[in-house]
Amino acid sequence: MIQRIQSLFLLLAAIAGGAMGEFNLWSARFTKGNVAGNQYFTATSSYLIFILLMLSTILALVTIFLYKKRPLQFRLTVVNILLVISILLLIYFKVQDTANKLINEGASNMQATFLFPAFLPIVMLVCLFLAARGIYKDQKLIKSLDRLR
Fold it and tell me: So what's the pLDDT on residue 36?
C-alpha cells in the first residue's frame, strides 16, 4: 500500500540510496611537490560499499510491497537499518584509509571534506527508523483490533 506513511519513508530511503551511488562522497585537494591534485571517493570506489548500498536500496524497495506481512516487513526494515549503519562505518573507514594513503605518498597541504551526498545514509537511517516505527504502530493497532473481536 503506497498510501501508508511507512511506504513513503521506505521509498525515500530507496531514493536516497540510489542517489548516493551517483555522486562523490568525499573530496580532497592536495599538492605533491609542485603538482596540485584532486582525489575523490564515491560509493563505487569500494565494491563492498557499493554492494551493501545496492542491497539496502533493493531491500527498501522490496519491503514496500510486503504490507500484508507486517512482522516480516518490520524485521527486514530493522535489517536494513543495520545495513545502513555498516555502510556509514565503511564509508568513514575507507575515507580515512584513502586520506592516510595520500599522506603516506607525500601529499602536503591537503584540504579534505565530506560532500553533501555523504550524509544521505543518515537520511536513509532516519527514514528507515520512521518506517519501522510506523510498521510497529500498524502491527500494534491490528493486534488491538483482533482482541476486540
Answer: 77
